Amino acid sequence: MRTATLSTIELAGRQVDYRLIHSNAAKRLRVRVGPTGVEVVQPTARPASEVEAFLRANDQWIITQLERVERLYPVRRP
Known about the structure:
By secondary structure, the chain is of the alpha+beta class. It is built from 2 helices and 4 strands, in the order E-E-E-E-H-H.
């Protein structure tokens, strides 16, 4: 079963909103950045404290991907 929660974290001086999805099937934490925003998949067996640590450990990659999405948004097809 997957349930989603909206959350916010500050990464590299920038407020980042993300959807936290709890998944029984997931085996590891995953982050996805796309036109719909940031999505984090958390296995239900993992503690919630690992999510923020995971996002902070990958903050530069996440910010770079968000900037990429923002640059490409004007050329995206409706």
